[in-house]
Write a structure and sequence with these properties.
The complex is a heterodimer of chains A (about 140) and B (about 400). With about 140 residues, chain A is mainly beta. Chain A contains one helix and eight strands. The two termini of chain A are about 25 Å apart. Chain B is an alpha+beta fold. Chain B has one domain: Thiolase/Chalcone synthase (Peroxisomal Thiolase, Chain A, domain 1), CATH 3.40.47. Helices cover about 30% and strands about 15% of the residues of chain B. Chain B contains twelve helices and twelve strands. In chain B, the strands form two sheets. In chain B, strands 1, 2, 3, 4, 5, 8, 9, 10, 11 and 12 form a ten-stranded mixed beta sheet that branches. Chain B has a two-stranded antiparallel sheet with strand order 6-7. The two termini of chain B are about 10 Å apart. Classes of the chains: A mainly beta (about 140), B alpha+beta (about 400). At the A-B interface, strand 4, strand 5 and strand 6 of A face helix 4 and strand 6 of B.
Chain lengths: ~140, ~400
């Protein structure tokens, strides 16, 4: 069973992020990198905000990142969340990719054990609409 | 600066009653908007026929042609909408109105905002912010509503600077205390203790219930014209010394997006460049400000705003408020003297502009003695945010 209930909307790919989700369906986390200045960026944009090049390379991200910040949600802002609160939302940082960040969830860590700085690794889950989305679990030592 | 004939001023303020969300939804936002505008016109000693311009923000539902029809405006010559979420555009709309009167686009412009947060339209629930650009990177992970978007910023702020729950509580208490002197405030007659604050339920850690502003029904409006015209009117004109929008670099995907704002500003907020620009324009510093109406959607954002706008150093917001600096009447910079969003009402910042005007007229229920300069901020954490400096 996925970390969040099926009633939570899955991603609906749009012109800007279609390729991101395309790679996710192959269990690949890839971020946009500028084909000219090589800076990473996320979420996807049509133009590099640093050098304004339209050249895009989709580069495979490391399987691990670090918790940059987080919240433990107690209030069910969506009716389907009543059954799952408290749940966590984490902001995962990828230092090797110019610190691009993903908002996601940590699926195997109790709320009181989540810490800023803890290392996490990718764990693919299926959203309610059948699309794979990147979530995370605790990185095991070694 | 500020004394020339074309200087833009606020000459009228109007408000409906403010209620808890849902209590005026049968009446609707359009009706409330009309009431606030008509009251502002009356306050100014004008007739509605003279209003030639409409300015609003946050995609207000009372569209200009609806307002033109309902109010019977004979000479509608200027309309403007500041794009985007929440109250980030409040002072942006004020800036548009000021530019319109200063350049002769219109003689009298009203800035208004109307909100009825009936079922299905609550900002605190999923779906209240459908226009956000990066929902695919937020909603599938349960980041549905503003408290959930802001909580990680405050978490990081605490991590970096060591702020204590009582620091955030002091912001909530200061606003609530001011509301006890303001009969218009929704939280009038409901005093708050630190114990109440600390015992309130968690919404999204570290945000407790009373760290989050209210959701309300109501409407606010102001009338803007030039200093030259203002001299013939009923009220003391309150000058818009500076009003501007400011989108700090890299915040296009900030807290209300996928949290990829510049990493070193993540827990610090996005107002510093706007603050510098405003102060330079007026030729003052934070120390010159007498009272501050801060966009208090969340207590943590108030601390960040105090830092961004130079009232204290980065990371010093907690101890700064704990020392009593934001309290009326003895603090150096009394904030949100009507109770703010936390305790008066959440009208997306326009009621903060109204309170700023009241302060400079000397009519606040928590009057700052001899107040001459008031800073109003709007929508920290969204981009572009906005702010204004008002003066007598």
């Amino acid at each position: 069973m996925a970390y969040l209930p099926n009633e939570v909307s899955g991603p609906v790919p749009n012109d800007a992020d279609r390729m991101f989700w395309h790679y996710c369906q192959q269990h690949e986390l890839r971020f946009q990198q500028c084909g000219s200045c090589r800076r990473f960026r996320h979420p996807p944009t049509p133009v590099c905000p640093y050098c304004r090049s339209f050249e895009i390379v989709w580069v495979r991200a490391p399987d691990t990142g670090a918790v940059f910040s987080f919240t433990i949600v107690h209030h069910p802002a969506h009716p389907a969340m009543k059954a799952v609160v408290p749940y966590n939302i984490v902001v995962v940082d990828f230092p090797a990719c110019d610190h691009v960040r993903l908002v996601s969830n940590l699926i195997d860590v109790p709320p009181q054990e989540i810490r800023i700085g803890m290392e996490v690794m990718l764990a693919w889950e299926t959203a309610g609409n059948g699309l794979l989305v990147p979530r995370f679990k605790r990185k095991q030592p070694g | 600066m500020g004394n020339h004939a074309q200087q833009a001023c606020i000459v009228g303020i109007g408000e409906t009653a403010y209620t808890r969300w849902g209590q005026m939804s049968e009446r609707g936002e359009w009706s409330l908007a009309c009431e606030a505008v008509l009251k502002a016109v009356d306050d100014a000693g004008l007739t509605i026929d003279l209003v030639e311009g409409l300015a609003s923000f946050s995609n207000d539902s009372s569209l200009p042609w609806l307002m033109q029809q309902a109010l019977g405006l004979p000479n509608l010559g200027f309309t403007s909408m500041v794009w985007g979420g929440g109250g980030s555009g409040t002072c942006g709309a004020l800036a548009h109105a000021a530019m319109a009167v200063e350049t002769g686009q219109a003689q009298y412009v009203t800035v208004f905002r109307s909100l009825c947060q009936g079922p299905g339209h609550r900002y605190g629930q999923a779906g209240g912010y459908n226009e956000l650009p990066h929902l695919n990177f937020m909603v599938p992970f349960g980041m549905f509503s503003p408290p959930l978007m802001i909580a990680p910023l405050v978490q990081r702020y605490i991590y970096e600077f060591g702020a204590k729950p009582e620091h955030f509580g002091e912001v909530a208490l200061a606003c609530r205390d001011n509301a006890q002197r303001n009969p218009r405030a929704v939280m009038y007659g409901r005093p708050l203790t630190m114990e109440d604050y600390l015992n309130a339920r968690m919404i999204a850690e570290p945000l407790r219930l009373l760290d989050c502003c209210q959701e309300n029904d109501g409407s606010s409006a102001v009338i803007v014209t030039t200093l030259e015209r203002a001299r013939d009117l009923k009220q003391k004109p309150i000058r818009i010394l500076a009003a501007a929008q400011g989108g700090a670099a890299g915040w296009g995907d900030g807290a209300l997006g996928s949290h990829n704002m510049p990493i070193h500003e993540y827990g610090a907020g996005n107002g510093a460049t706007l603050a510098r620009r405003l102060y330079e324009r007026v030729g003052i510093t934070a120390a010159d400000i007498d009272t501050v109406q801060i966009y208090d959607h969340f207590t943590g954002c108030v601390l960040m705003t105090l830092e961004n706008f130079g009232f204290c150093g980065r990371g010093e917001g907690g101890p700064f408020v704990a020392d009593g600096n934001i309290r009326w009447p003895y603090g150096q910079f009394p904030i949100n003297t009507s109770g703010g969003h936390l305790s008066e009402a959440y009208i997306h910042g326009l009621n903060l502009v109204v309170e700023g005007v009241r302060q400079l007229r000397g009519e606040s229920t928590s009057q700052v003695k001899d107040a001459e300069l008031c800073l109003v901020t709007a929508g920290m954490s969204a981009s572009p945010m906005s702010a204004a400096i008002l003066g007598v």
